[in-house]
Each structure stands twice: as structure tokens, then as C-alpha cells.
Amino acid sequence: EATTQIKQLEMKRKDMDRQLNEHVKLLKQTQKESTGVLKEKESLIKEIEMLNSELEGLNYDGARENELTHSKKQVENKIIEYKDKLSRFQVQFRNHFFFEYRDPEINFDRRKVKGRLLRLFQFEDKQYALALENTAGGKLFQVVTQDEITSKQLIKRKCFDNRVIFIPNNKIDSRMAQKMTENSILSRYEGKARIALSYINYEPEFENSMRYAFGNTFVCENSSIAKSIAYDRELRTRCVNLEGDIFDPSGTVTGGSEKHPISILVRLQEVLDLEEGLEELEKEQREIMSELNSLKNASHKKQSIRNQIDLKNYQLQNIEKQIAKSSHQQHQDAITNLQENIEASMRKLDTLRETVKQTEKEVSELKEEIKEFTGKKKNQKELYDKKVKKLKKEVDQLNKELKGYQKKADSLEQENEDSKNEMESLEEQLEKEKQNEIEEKQKVETLTEAVSQLKQQYNSEKKVLEEKKKALQRCNKDLQNLEDEISHYRTQQDKNDNELKKLEMKLAKFNKDSTETREYLEKLIKEHPWIEDEKAYFGEKNTDYDFSSLDIDEARQRHRKVKDENALLEKRVNMKVDAMSDQTEKKFEELQKKKETIEMDKENIKGAIEELDEKKIKAIEKTWVKVNKDIGSIFSTLLPGAFAKLDPPEGSIRKGLELKVAFNNTWKQSLSELSGGQRSLLALSLVLALLLYKPAPMYILDEVDAALDLSHTQNIGQMISKHFPQSQFIVVSLKEGMFNNANVLFRTRFVDGVSTVERNALRESKDDKKKKKKYH
């Protein structure tokens, strides 16, 4: 049994070796074809691994995204609320808080216009708001600019719509209360009276403008302190209490109920708080949006990476299927299977060899037994001899198989040597590459030496250039000194020119004032004739016109004061109200008159429309009666035994007319019951009845009988001659029934390749008959 198994294994092994060699050869042949697919598979696996690592590294949190979306909606609602409040403030205090203007020139720097004065400072406590507001007065709404040039540009170019007073920050006269006075007030009243400027905070650049508005007034806690400071002979300083009452050293007191119950500065503070809150909310919205966008981008990126992974997995599956179906993979699988089978057969062979060794041992034991029992049983000896021979044959057979396996081992060693040779050749190529690399390094070193030389040359050139730059800077410095001297002389010249212009302006103003005074005196003399009579007593002592006791300066001061008060009233009170009221009343009266005329015209138009409607109905009724009579007559002529009429629905002609047809006194319910020819005749009857209402001198009919029978064609001709005796008809027809009723017939024929027209007079007209009678 062992020998038979060994033989079977040898046969199987030989067959498997043969198959293995064939598959190895085929595998080498198909290896080039499969290398690209294998590389693609490896690259896909690497890409999938990279995408998975990138997916793990993404910082995406869905809960955070939902939280940010919710907070975004809340912030947007708050922004809408703040903007709504701000828009209401802007509508209410547009001209108080904001200054809108157009750029006076292209690329104008808007930073030069700082805005209205009340937006350039903040106050410490709301209880001082009314006092500060009345301290500055109308100056709060004046516009601060960087310099007087900017103010002139805006005024010259008319860049705003309302009247505006500008404060040039560099030129404004910023008069302050004397330091000695301030110290004495502070020490005497122990902080209960402080200069108004100390209650506000502002940027240092606006120092001049703030001194101009708040620098000469003290804010006092009560009226008694304000009075004592204002009317003190040593102090004599303008004061204001917390209720906004102003005490002036000249003796005037300004106060009373305020127009607005809440200070405009408090309103402004609310606007500023709203703007600040809106800015913070918009900042928060931008931060939320940026984070939300990054999360959305991460979400989109995550989804795209997942899609890419799915796509790569799908491609990998396709490649694996392609590899599995490829001949190379099939050969590879077959080789692995054959190698496994060979290894199994080799293991079986080893077991069989062990069995052979055991049998040899048994043979040796049997030999010893044979020696012992030689004389006893010859038959047993022969039997043992046969067994020994048989076992020897099996051993020989196993030795032969062992030699075959040895040969295979030799062939595998040969292949191993070949692979070693290939490795040696590859190592030689590697050494050559290393030598090439060494040569390249040498070239790089030579290039670096050249670069270092060029650097040294560059440094030397750079030093020369720096020396020349220093020389140029010295020249520029000298030149700058000369330019500074020139600019100094120019500024001195400008100052002199300004002084000259001021003197010229003063002279012009004096001349203007003198002419205006002269004109005013002449005007007064014209308006008051008694001046001429009393003129001789002007300036005389002991008369009503003794002006020696009058203080001109005091009168001028009073005049200025009244003028200033009038100017303040003009700002608060609209002086044009009376004129505007008169204009509004005149406009109202004009509109009333226009309204009355329009109403009269409306009544006239209604009457005209009603009259025209009546005329229209009468004309329609008249036309209907005539057309209804004619359509019945024409239709009965065209279709004997039939009758047609126009019948108003529900007995009113205003709602339209219906066309009804009767055959043998039987009225049809609908025109759809008529045939096509009958409907054609009915339509022709309606058109001709309308034409008969207002006849024309000539009619042209083009093959109106084309779809009709010969009898209907003849009836059309009879109808034309009966109902239209005073009109001329040009009829185009191809049927005899129409020819018979014609007076003149024009025929067209094709003779010798040319169209010819013949005229045939079938009947004589009435005029021709009359002419003949006269001739006879």
C-alpha cells in the first residue's frame, strides 16, 4: 500500500510540477500587463488611508453648528431691534446728531470732517447733561473740521443742504477762564462749582474746540452758588446750575421750562449706546458667521471626503474584480494552490519515508528471525525472502523519487543563483548612481564657490552704493535746509499778505458801512418827514435830542446783545412761520377752487357721458331696425324659405344682439345646426345688411361662392341686382350662375402662350338705354 501511495504521489507531484512550470512561465509573460493595475491598486489603498486620516483630523461638531445657528438668529433679531431704534432716532434727530454732506472733490479725505461737536465728547453723569447742553447752546450742533481750508471747500462747493456753522479746529479762538479765577472758585466752594470742561471726556486733538464751547463757564450745584460766582466783582464768571439756568456777569439770567423734558445729550448718549451695542452685535455676528462658515466648510469637506472614499472603494473593488478576472491573478492563484499541494505531497512523502524506514527495521528484524529459524521452516523463509525483495523494491522506488526531488532542489538553487546575479548587477548600477551623485555634489560645490565670489563682489558694490547714498543724503539735507528757509520767507510773505488783506477788508467794510449808513439815513428821512424839520435841534443841549448824556458804547453793547438774542431766537423759533402760513392758506384756497372746478367738470362729463349713451342707444336702435329688416330680406333671397333676424336677449339692446334663423317658420335653437354653406350665406347676409345701412359706391367680392352650390351662386347674383341697384360690384367668380347676372363680363384666357382679357357687355345699363332713346 505504501508503494502504491508513493507512486501516486510521484505521479501527482510530476503533474503538479509540470503545471507549476507552465503557470510560472505564463505568470512571467503576464507580469508586465498586471504591474500597472497593481500599482493603481496600491495607490488607491494609500489614497483611501490618507482620506481616512484626513477625515479623522477634521474638527466638525454638529451640535455646535446647531447652537451657532440658534445664536445667529437671536443676534440677527437683536440687530434688527437696534437698527429699528436707531432709525427712529435718526428720523427724529437727523439734523442734530448727524452731518450729511457731499465730497467737494474726488478722493476727498473724509477724516478731515470730524462731525458735529456733541458727538466728539462723552460726559460723566446724566445729572450734568442739561447744564452742559445749555452751556454750549447752539455750538453743540456746529461741525468741527480739521482746518479752515476744509471748511472753505465745503462751503464753496455747496456740499450740504442746510445752513451749517463750522469750527476749524486749528484756528478757533479757545478762550479759557483764568487759572487764578478757577483756583479761587475751587478753593472757595470746595468742588461744588467746577469748570464745564472738567465734566467731559474727549480726544486731545479736539482741545481747542472743547475750550471754545465749555472753557469759560462753571457748572454749579445750585442757583445760589451760581449767582455768587457770576455777580462777584472779583470772579465775574459765567455760571450754570444743574437745572440749566445760566447766570451771566452782565446781569442776565436765562432759564425756565425746557422745550424737551429729556436733555438732547442724554438722547445722544442713548444713540451712542445703541451704536456701540450694534457694533458689538455685528462683531458677534461676524464671529458666529466665520465659525459657522468654517463648520459648514468642514461639513462639506467631510461629505466630499466621504464621497471620495466611497468612490475610491468602488474603484478599488472594480480593480480587485479586474485583478481577480485577469489571467495573471489566475496564474498566481494556481501557483499558490500548486505550491500548497506540493507541500502537502512532500509532507505525505516524508511520512511514507518514515514508513519505509520502519519497514527496513522490520526487514532487519525479520533477517534475524530468519537466521534463528532457518532450519525450522523453509516455507516461512521463502515467505520472508519475498517480503524482503518486495520491501527492497519499495526502497529502490523511494530512492528514485528522492533523486527526482533532489534534481528539483538543484534547479531551484540554480534559479536562486540567477537571482543573486541580478542583485549583483543592480548593486553595480547603484554604485554607478552613487558616483554620479558624488559628481553632482562636486558641481554644486563649484557653483557655491562661484556664488560666494559673486556675494563678495556684491558686498563691495553695496558699500560703494551706500557711500554714494550718504553723499546724496547730505546733499538732500542741504537742499532741505534751503527749502525750509524759502518756506519760512514764504510764510512771512503770506502773513504780510494776510495782514494787508485784513486791512483792505476792514477798509472795504468801513466804506460799506458808511454807504449803508448813508442809505439808511436817507431811507429814514424819506420814511419820517419830521426829521427834516427837527434836524436843526439834533445834539443841542436842553432839547429832546440832547445825545451828550447817551453812552454810545453801552448802546452798541445793548444793540449787540439784542441782536444775539434775536439770533438765538431765530435758531429756536421759525421766523418764517407767518409767511409760510399765508402761503399755505393761499395754496389751500387755490386747491379748494381747483377742487370745485374739478367737481363741476366731473358733473359736466357725467352729463355728457349720459347724453352720449342715449345718442348711442338711439343710433344702435335705428341701425338695428334697418339692419334687421335688410338681413331678413337678403337671407330669404339667398336661401328661399328661410328667414333671419337680430333679436336682443331679455328684451334689452344694451346686452347685445343674437342672430336667429328660421326654416319654414321653424326657428333653430343654435347656429351649429346649420350646414357650412348655410352659415356662409348667413355671414354674407349680415355683412351686406350692415353695408346696406351706409352704402358705398363700389364693392369687391373675391370668390365668395367658391364653397356654394350653383343655385346659391345664382341667388347671390339676384340678391346683388335687387338690393344694391345704386352700387357697383366687382365680383371674381368661376361659376355660370354669377356670370348670368353681370352687366359686363371680363374673361381671361391663355392664347398662344399669352394671357388675354376679353370684355363682353351682357346687359345694357340704364344710362346706355337712355342715350339710345335720345339718339333715336
What does this structure look like?
Residues 770-776 have low confidence and may be disordered. The chain is flat and about 195 Å long. The N and C termini lie far apart (159 Å). It has helices at 2-57, 62-92, 94-97, 129-136, 148-156, 179-189, 207-214, 223-230, 264-325, 327-372, 378-527, 530-534, 552-572, 577-638, 676-693, 710-723, 736-739, 766-775, and strands at residues 113-116, 121-123, 143-145, 166-168, 193-195, 200-202, 217-220, 238-241, 246-247, 253-254, 642-647, 658-663, 666-667, 698-702, 728-732, 744-751, 754-761. The chain contains 18 helices and 17 strands. The protein has a 5-stranded mixed beta sheet, sandwiched between helices. Strands 1-3-4 form a 3-stranded mixed beta sheet, with helices on one face. A 3-stranded antiparallel beta sheet has the order 11-12-13. The chain is an alpha+beta fold and 776 residues long. Helix content is 68%, strand content 9%. Strand 8 and strand 9 (246-247) form a beta hairpin.
